[in-house]
Amino acid sequence: MAFVTANWNPLGESFYRKIELYEMGWNLKDGLRECLVAAAPYGGPIALLKGHYRRSPSARPQLEIYSSSGLPLASFPWKSGVVKQLGWTVSDDLLCVQEDGTVLVYDLWGGFKRHFSMGNEVSQSQVLETKIFHSPYGTGVAILTGALRFTLATNIDDIKLRRLPEVPGLQEAPSCWAVLTQDRQSKVLVANGSQLFILDNTACTPVTPPGLSPQASSIVHMCVSFSYKYLALLTDSGHVWMGTSNLKEKLSEVDTKIKTPPKQMAWCRRPKSQQPSAVVMWDGLLIVVGECKETIQYHLDDDSVLVPELDGVRIISGTHHELLQEVPGACEEIFKIASMAPGALLLEAHKEYEKESQKADEYLREIKEQSLLSEAVRQCVEAAGHEHEPETQKTLLRAASFGKCFLSNFPPEQFVSMCRDLRVLNAVRDYTVGIPLTHTQFKQMTVQVLIDRLVYRKLYPLAIEVCRYLKTPEYQGVSRVLKHWACYKVQQKEESDEVIAKAVSVKLADAAGISYSEIATKAYESGRTELAIKLLEFEPRSGEQVPLLLKMKKSPLALSKAIESGDTDLVYTVVMYLKNELNRGDFFMMLRNQPVALSLYKQFCKHQEQDTLKDLFNQDDDHEELGNFYVKASYKDQRLEARVALLQSAVDEYYKAKNDFSAKTTEDEMRLLRFQRKLEEEKDEQLVGFSLQDTMTTLLSVGLHKHAEQLYKDFRVPDKRFWWLKLKALAEKEDWEELEKFGKTKKSPIGYLPFVEVCIKHHNKYEAKKYVSKVTPEQKVKAHLAVGDMEGAAEAAIERRNESEISTVLSRCSATTDHLLMERLNRAKATAVKK
């Protein structure tokens, strides 16, 4: 604690500090000399390509990947083309840009993933320089070709190459250039001598930085801030100009007094800082420039690389890994010499309290008198987040906890959250993990991305502990990590299928929301089909099992699983897949062993594939269904001969099925069709296709009574049905004379009340009255009422002494016109009730 400010250096109104993150674990004989180096932001991995200038097959370059602490992750000889640039994607994949414009993508462990080309023009004119950048769309690649033209891809996951306009007057490679991201568009800023140009999709626009030193004749280096909001330019006169990236505002200009071109330059401004600052590196020297004329100089003992970060710059050398940053405001307030800030007083109060000194009370009283105790606690908590040493963190958090004791309503969330965050950060900063995140970077990155990074590094136990400690929802945390672990586990060749399947099921038994089908897919892709099948047994959702089983050519098992699920859509999916994959015989044989699938397929064929349905019935010797099939087919054919032939086939099948009823009925249909065709030819009346009843109705309506009666006799139509048909047909024609003759032919099997009702329906009361006398006594009242004969209805009701009928007649009588009749009916009703 006494030496917290020992590595602080003042610059203007701020302080800068260089913190050692790690003593590197790698063993590099020549350090970083003659190496292509790329380090991922947010404490990501480091890639080295040693001897990248070598082109002899006997002495190939070596590509090595390390954690930020220098622990080896991967190493392999480079066997492809000449590499011009290395870089990392936002998801920690390594990009290797070759001289011919081919970009190779490797994972963190050196596994080749894919490659893509930056276009024919780049391939033909070769790559001069490359920059890999991060945009709102993802990771991008910008290339300067040998033809001095720029080609840009803003997202390597969705390659859309853009060839930018030509830079006027550019005869050789520009002195420097950088990629800017403005308004969700990526542009290139190019320096050609003292001239600056911005290249976008359509134009090359000359720009002038406001207030640039007139001594400058050329811009030799430039860098863009991590957020792309600010820009730093270094001129050949040794001046560093800093301003906004849109080149509309100048922030400062500082003379470094060094005119040789630097090796590297990077922004060092932390978020919310009031002072712009940049770091410029030469061989053996590092300079920090800000708003004032003074600079901070650090001497470097070894070749180093600058890695821009959100809140500082990481410096990687052959032996050490350091972080250079502006001292955060809360830390400066507390630790600055002679500081009277609330946080500083609270820290002193806590120190005195631990010594059991009464000065603690004096410090506390001083803070309370200014009503700044809440602010003091907040400062201590915030400062703890910005410190890397666990002892310093603990001291600050203890001071904050001490101050909280004297506050009655201080919200605990900030303190609790910071304790949790620091515990996680200290765990991932550990040398064996090697992710040196600051608290600011952690908050920008989010917990989910950190868990993804740990999973990508196969640090599954640590990822699970982080999820549990931060109480991440299970489906986003533990379950997701376990799924990744299982996908990795099934690719291990050393253990047997049974051992791995058991291990996965035990580990994942209590985890929620895990899809075993994804794990099984990974096993299948690794060539372990039997393991995939074992894993699918644990998958509760058949909809997830079946697609993979089909992919693995396990069709019978897929069909069984689909049927077990009870999901008809899933069964249809499998059946249609099998239909396309298998030959017809094997397909039908498989369906015969699965009655449910066969039944569903038959339903499908009824609507979509009639011929297939016929083949199925033939194969099963299902004569009953074949007969039904021929009958249905006959109705679809308009030609009489074809229809009769189909019906004859149906008759044959019904007899084979010993279904005499269906056979006889079908034969009757054939006789009817022939009869209809004959009449059509003789009488020119459309009849073919009509039912027996419709045929008789049509014949009666056109006066062909003899032909109708012939059908009546030939097809043994019931008497009642025929009488009804003829009665309605004659009434429709209003052929009352023929109706009267028909009624006298013999006693009506349907009675005579229908005659009365049909006549009334067709508004002929006169004809209706002719049949009233023939109506049976039980229907007399109804008949008289139908023709409007109230007297007759009353007589019939009184004669039958039926109370219900008397009441019916009474309800139809009018009190004004049928007064006497109503009295008579009432007397009769009273008599009927007494009896």
From TrEMBL:
Signal peptide: none annotated. It is a peripheral membrane protein. Keywords: Endosome, Lysosome, Membrane, Protein transport, Transport. Gene3D superfamilies: Vps16, C-terminal region. One of its GO terms (biological process) is intracellular protein transport. Its main location: membrane. Residues 5-416 form the Vps16 N-terminal domain. GO terms for molecular function: actin binding. Residues 514-829 form the Vps16 C-terminal domain. It comes from the Eukaryota. InterPro entries: VPS16, Vps16_C, Vps16_C_sf, Vps16_N, WD40_repeat_dom_sf. GO terms for cellular component: CORVET complex; HOPS complex; late endosome membrane; lysosomal membrane. It holds the Pfam family Vps16_N. It is found in: Late endosome membrane; Lysosome membrane. PANTHER family: VACUOLAR PROTEIN SORTING VPS16 (PTHR12811), VACUOLAR PROTEIN SORTING-ASSOCIATED PROTEIN 16 HOMOLOG (PTHR12811:SF0). Core component of at least two putative endosomal tethering complexes, the homotypic fusion and vacuole protein sorting (HOPS) complex and the class C core vacuole/endosome tethering (CORVET) complex. Their common core is composed of the class C Vps proteins VPS11, VPS16, VPS18 and VPS33A, which in HOPS further associates with VPS39 and VPS41 and in CORVET with VPS8 and TGFBRAP1. Interacts with RAB5C. Interacts with STX17, MON1B. Associates with adapter protein complex 3 (AP-3) and clathrin:AP-3 complexes. Belongs to the VPS16 family. Plays a role in vesicle-mediated protein trafficking to lysosomal compartments including the endocytic membrane transport and autophagic pathways. Believed to act as a core component of the putative HOPS and CORVET endosomal tethering complexes. This is Vacuolar protein sorting-associated protein 16 homolog. The gene is LOC109044911.
